[in-house]
Amino acid sequence: MKKLALALAVAIIAGIGAWFVWRPAPAAPQVVFTTLQGKQVSMQDLKGKVVLVKFWATSCVTCVKQMPDTIAAYDRYAPQGYEAIGVAMQYDPPNYVLNFVQTRKLPFPVALDTKGELARAFGDVRLTPTAFLIDKQGRIIKRYLGEYDVAEFHATVEKALAAG
């Protein structure tokens, strides 16, 4: 009886472990971003690309610090099918966002989340920076909150770009 209970416990633990390792990645929400230029970009439009959706604010010290790395990743991987979309938080004044984008010459689209709908769609994002890496099939493969390992990020992007 003890052996049966032990075997059952091991099987349950193994099953739970396997679920965490092999569970399907969640689908990115089907939202539409409106860029500062008024262009609309939907998640459906981005299928087939590896996409970074980055929630940030001009008042966020870590966001500003990370922006050169975000630009560098965009410049490096965009020719291979990578896209980045910056999403300015609801509380960020639009004129501050526009000034930041222009003075830093951000090469990727930036959307304003004036009603907080995009943040809610991505799991009620409240902290910045929060970023989601989405694969070519539209699945969230990684969530980044705050500081992150740049080399690990690049490795994850490269793996996603190489995947079919």
TrEMBL record:
* Boundaries of every Thioredoxin domain copy: 22-162
An example Pfam family from this entry, by short name, is: Redoxin
**UniProt superkingdom:** Bacteria
Q: Which CDD domains match?
A: TlpA_like_family (cd02966)
Membrane-spanning residues = none
Q: Which PROSITE patterns match?
A: THIOREDOXIN_2
Q: What InterPro entries does the record point to? A: Redoxin, Thioredoxin-like_sf, Thioredoxin_domain, Thioredoxin_ResA/DsbE_sf
Q: Which GO terms describe its molecular function?
A: oxidoreductase activity
Q: Which PANTHER family match?
A: CHROMOSOME UNDETERMINED SCAFFOLD_47, WHOLE GENOME SHOTGUN SEQUENCE, THIOL:DISULFIDE INTERCHANGE PROTEIN DSBE
Name the UniProt record assigns to this protein:
Thioredoxin
